[in-house]
Design brief:
- With 1059 residues, this protein is α/β, with parallel strands linked by helices.
- The chain contains 32 helices and 17 strands.
- The strands form 4 sheets. Strands 8-7-6-9-10-17-16-11-12-13 form a 10-stranded mixed beta sheet, with helices on both faces. A 3-stranded antiparallel beta sheet has the order 2-1-5, with no helix packed on it. The protein has a two-stranded antiparallel ribbon with strand order 3-4.
- Helix 4 packs across helix 9 and helix 24 packs parallel to helix 25.
- It is elongated, with a radius of gyration of 43 Å.
- The N terminus is likely disordered.
- One of its GO terms (biological process) is potassium ion import across plasma membrane.
- It catalyses: K(+)(in) + chloride(in) = K(+)(out) + chloride(out).
- This is Solute carrier family 12 member 5-like.
- One of its GO terms (molecular function) is potassium:chloride symporter activity.
């Protein structure tokens, strides 16, 4: 069916033969109409397939052609909606609502509820005509418009609403049975009981009979929906005949009012059950005789008997319960009459003689209010009578032209039912006396159903008709709800509900039916129609609210795929409908509304956390895209303020030949640093061409995603392919991020085994990466011994995070330990800050200033100032420096092939007239940013470098060059190699090695037991001949430390003392 764009083309001839010429007449032939009536079904989509499956199980081997859907607007949408909307509330509670709320108040309630459903129908029509709606109906529409999270939450709310509607219909059927049809069938007798005891007996009867009826209905549905289907037309006929009987009765009251007397004592309505004549005494040939009414209030039948005080003081009056539409009773019924539970139902325009001190006696003789009534209660009880508007969309697969039938049929059904409801409010108020309207169970009119007293030709038309229609509605709820649950379960968005997707061989949802029956039983145990109605109102209102939200969202986002055939919609109407739904929820019952929202919210979060990932092209994804675009455009306006700075990490990892990540602990550290809630991009570089290595890059990306999921790192992954790894890494550094949402820090692990000849390329790549991050003003974090870092499952119960603050780098060294300590791995660790004082520094003042600085930063840490004195350069230092330089020269001359040597010459020595002879560490001064009072001077400062006290300092390795001609590496002769072993160490290198060794000694002494040591990372040498020396100095500086994080700032302040 879905494969062909012309769905109904095969049936065009058959359709034409059954209809008159369209130019002359647009009505179907009688035979066609009768055929449609014979095939009428008010079951949700899928039920017919189950029925056919039951009938054809024996013939399953013989394939039959698929029958195209034949239902039109009338049979497929209009009548099912009519049958679902008209229900138990109209027959059992409508007259009571008019009596309590008044004609004006009830008309406002009806108008508000009908407006809500009409606006929802408009929104639903727009969604339903925006493409083909397959099986699932309303659930399908909402989930595909709002996404799996909202779809699941609303789908389950709709399911619960439908299930509780089944309970309400069953309770209505039992109320009709026990009160109006066969009152003597009560298991718990009501005779002689008063007040709470009578109420409890009635509720227990409802529970017992409700459970029996539910069990029998569930059995019918289980055995086969074909039996329900065959009765659908009978139930529809009952509904229509009952409503026609009411209108006929109203017309008749204008001509000849029916005789339904009501007996009043004073102004109190009497229960007309145990007496025959509405009088205290009657005159007979033998004189004055007391009546049965007399004996109800007096202790004997004698005229001088002791009687109830109120009975003695007031007269008995008989009035007409239905004065007629022309009687003018409407003016008395215009305004509300709210009662407390147990109040007497009294006629307002009649006076009675009462003794204020006299307690109420014989309460069971009067008609009493059974519940406390108020406006919002009436809203909650009435709203279920306008639900059922989804009946057409639920059966969209059975419609000949769903996109035409659903809007027309649904809106026409709501218009019809709204007219009936609004007119019935006015007609009931105009025909029936107020005391009868407020008599919920018709106790004052001989126990008749109040709306039945108005019907013509007999009250039994309404009683029997409403009983069958409520039973039919209950059966339809028990048939529809399990299929809705099955559709949700089969979608797989709620893992806990997967079992309910299974059923019988023909697809009948057995487990879903069992769940539905259990939930329905919980509603029946409540036993009160008035208590169950607000519950299902909540769930239906929640569903309708999200239908309106879906339409408004799609309209405002203007997604290219939003092209509904139904044009009479607007986002403002959808928002109005959504607002009305929300208002009605809190009007009905604010605590039920909160419970329903909590249930929907919990389901939403559960699906978001544990549900299957679904991409349905829904509106929420579109909203996310629009919001993301707007936020990115705002971010472009300028760099973030220091207060908003957070580490946006680009994590560079390497992969092996199988595309597995070589440093998984790097992502563990990333997770532990994410207290800043910034951006995370995990990137890796592959060597080759993109066309040839596309599959390899896809595998690498999947490996990254899997590891990110394992390590619970929320972010993005990116794989770059280039002709060499150096360029690929550079592309990652330059191109990652989007707009203002770019990385500001790079996390890369220290290259292992860089001293080995075959790892020389990794060494070069690392140094170049350090240079590029410096050029791009990016912060750099380099964890050394990454394999020793803790996983996310480990916990440190004690220990320290030590910060060695040698140079002020914008506050990165302060901020990173604070972020780490937010994670449960590092939470128990304490923070210590060490700074170094030289000979001419005041270490006491430095400690005081640093403590003040940390106090203003709101960072809790211990402060220690370490003093370092100059000492003689040891022989070990000379030896260490010499070994380093010899190794460096040998690597250059031995490990490079001739071609590599030539390439290195061209790369590193473009001008052969310069040779670097002397290396030293220089300070780069930044006069723009003042340092904190506690900023120490660097230890690695040569004596010739001048320093101003207010300048920010950063370390870098700088090669000073003179004009001597250069000898390319690798160009040395065999004698040159021999000269390596007789060379003397460079004095600059000796001084740097001395400083590194001394600082390493101090760090080992103070921080050997620390869980993590953070150090300033100096910048790389500007000329590339000193790369190996730079790495060697860093190795010496960190030697003997288990976990080290080398940190280099990005050239801006990242922490501030201001709020």
């Amino acid at each position: 069916k879905e494969s062909s764009p012309f769905i109904n083309s095969s049936d065009a001839a058959a359709e034409k033969s059954q209809q008159y010429d369209r130019k002359n007449m647009d009505f179907p032939m009688v035979s066609s109409l009768l055929s449609s009536l014979a095939n009428y079904s008010n079951l949700p989509q899928g039920s017919k397939e189950h029925e056919e499956g039951e009938n054809n199980e024996a013939e399953s081997s013989r394939k039959k052609p698929v029958k195209a859907p034949q239902l039109g607007t009338l049979m497929g949408v209009y009548l099912p909606c009519i049958q679902n909307i008209f229900g138990v509330i109209l027959f059992l509670r409508m007259t009571w609502l008019v009596g309590i709320g008044g004609v004006v108040g009830t008309f406002v309630i009806v108008f508000m509820c009908c407006t809500t459903t009409m606006l929802t129908a408009i929104s639903m029509s727009a969604i339903a005509t925006n493409g083909v709606v397959p099986a699932g109906g309303s659930y399908y529409m909402i989930s595909r418009s709002l996404g799996p999270e909202f779809g699941g939450a609303v789908g389950i709310c709709f399911y619960l609403g439908t299930t509780f509607a089944g309970a309400m219909y069953i309770l209505g059927a039992i109320e009709l049975l026990l009160i109006y049809i066969v009152p003597k069938a009560a298991i718990f007798p009501l005779e002689g009981l008063e007040g709470a005891e009578q109420e409890a007996a009635l509720l227990n009867n409802m529970r017992v009979y409700g459970t029996i009826l539910l069990t029998s209905m569930a059995t019918v549905v289980f055995v086969g929906v074909k039996y329900v289907n065959k009765l659908a037309l009978v139930f529809l006929a009952c509904v229509i005949l009952s409503i026609l009987a009411v209108y006929a009765g109203v017309i008749k009251t204008g001509v000849d009012a029916p005789d339904f007397p009501v007996c009043l004592l004073g102004n109190r309505t009497l229960v007309w059950k145990s007496f025959d004549v509405c009088a205290k005494t009657i005159e007979t040939t033998n004189g004055t005789v007391t009546t049965q009414l007399w004996r109800m209030f007096c202790d004997s039948s004698l005229l001088n008997a002791t009687c109830d005080k109120f009975f003695s003081m007031n007269n008995v009056t008989q009035i007409q319960g239905i004065p007629g539409v022309t009687s003018g009773i409407l003016t008395e019924n215009l305004f509300p009459f709210y009662y407390e539970k147990g109040d007497l139902i009294a006629r307002e325009n009649m006076q009675s003689v009462e003794d204020p001190d006299d307690p109420l006696t014989n309460a069971n003789r009067y008609v009493l209010a059974d519940i406390t009534s108020f406006f919002t209660l009436l809203v909650g009880i009435y709203f279920p009578s306008v639900t059922g508007i989804m009946a057409g969309s639920n059966r969209s697969g059975d419609l000949r032209d769903a996109q035409k039938s659903i809007p027309i049929g649904t809106i026409a059904a709501i218009t019809t039912t709204s007219f009936v409801y609004m007119s019935s409010v006015i007609l009931f108020g105009a025909c029936i006396d107020g005391v009868v309207l407020r008599d919920k169970f018709g106790e004052g009119v001989h126990g008749n159903l109040v709306i039945g007293t108005l019907a013509w030709p007999s009250p039994w038309v309404i009683v029997i008709g409403s009983f069958f229609s409520t039973c039919g509605a209950g059966l339809q709820s028990l048939t529809g709800a399990p299929r809705l649950m099955q559709a949700i379960a089969k979608d797989g968005i709620v893992p806990a509900l997967r079992i309910f997707g299974h059923g019988k061989a023909n697809g009948e949802p057995t487990w879903s039916l069992l769940l539905t029956a259990c939930i329905c039983e919980s509603g029946i145990l409540i036993a009160s129609l008035d208590a169950v109605a607000p519950i299902l109102s909540m769930f239906f209102l929640m569903c309708y609210m999200f239908v309106n939200l879906a339409c408004a969202l799609q309209t405002l986002l203007r997604t290219p795929n939003w092209r509904p055939r139904f044009k009479f919609y607007h986002w403002a109407l959808s928002f109005l409908g959504m607002s009305l739904c929300l208002t009605l929820m809190f009007l009905c019952s604010w605590y039920y509304a909160i419970v329903a929202m909590v249930i929907a919210g919990s389901i939403y979060k559960y699906i978001e956390f544990a549900g299957a990932e679904k991409e349905w092209g829904d509106g929420i994804r579109g909203l996310s895209l629009s919001a993301a675009r707007y936020a990115l455009m705002r971010l472009e306006e300028g760099p973030p303020h220091t207060k908003n700075w957070r580490p946006q990490l680009l994590v560079l990892v390497s992969t092996d030949g199988e595309q597995n990540v070589e440093q998984p602990r790097l992502l563990s550290l990333t997770n532990q640093l994410k207290a800043g809630k910034g951006l995370t991009i995990v990137g890796t570089a592959l060597e080759g061409t993109f066309l040839k290595n596309f599959e390899q890059s896809q595998r690498a990306e999947q490996a990254l995603r899997k590891l990110m999921e394992t390590e619970k790192v929320k972010g993005f992954c990116q794989v770059t392919v280039s002709s060499n790894l150096r360029d690929a890494t550079s592309h990652l550094l330059q191109a990652s991020g989007l707009g203002g949402l770019k990385h500001n820090a790079v996390l890369v692990s220290w290259p292992r085994n860089w001293k080995q000849g075959d790892e020389h390329l990794k060494l070069r790549n690392f140094i170049e990466l350090v240079r590029e991050t410096t050029a791009a003003d990016l912060a750099l974090l380099v964890p050394k011994n990454i394999a020793a870092f803790p996983s996310n499952g480990e916990r440190f119960t004690e220990g320290h995070i030590d910060v060695w603050w040698i140079v002020h780098d914008g506050g990165m060294l302060m901020l990173l330990p604070f972020l780490l300590r937010q994670h449960k791995v590092w939470r128990k660790c304490k923070m210590r800050i060490f700074t170094v004082a030289q000979m001419d520094d005041n270490s006491i003042q430095m400690k005081k200033d640093l403590t003040t600085f940390l106090y203003h930063l709101r960072i809790d840490a211990m402060v220690e100032v370490v003093e370092m004195h100059d000492s003689d350069i040891s022989a070990y230092t000379y030896e260490k420096t010499l070994v380093m330089e010899q190794r460096s020269q040998m690597l250059k001359q031995i490990n490079l092939t001739k071609t590599e040597r030539e390439r290195e010459v061209r790369r590193f020595y473009p001008c052969p007239t310069s040779k670097c002879t002397r290396s030293s560490v220089q300070l780069i001064h930044d006069n723009t940013t003042p340092t904190s009072p506690a900023t120490p001077a660097t230890l690695l400062t040569p004596p010739e470098a001048a320093q101003s006290p207010g300048e920010q300092v950063q370390m870098t390795w700088t090669e000073k060059c003179d004009g001597e001609p250069a000898k390319p590496p690798g160009a040395a002769t065999q004698e040159g190699i021999k000269d390596i072993f007789s060379m003397k160490p460079n004095q600059s290198n000796v001084r740097r090695m001395h400083t590194a060794l001394r600082l390493n000694e101090v760090i080992i002494k103070k921080s050997s037991e620390a869980k993590l040591v953070l150090l300033n990372m100096p910048g790389p040498p500007k000329n590339r001949t000193g790369d190996e020396n730079y790495m060697e100095f860093l190795e010496v500086l960190t030697e003997g430390l288990n976990r080290v994080l080398l940190v280099r700032g990005g050239g801006r302040e990242v922490i501030t003392i201001y709020s």
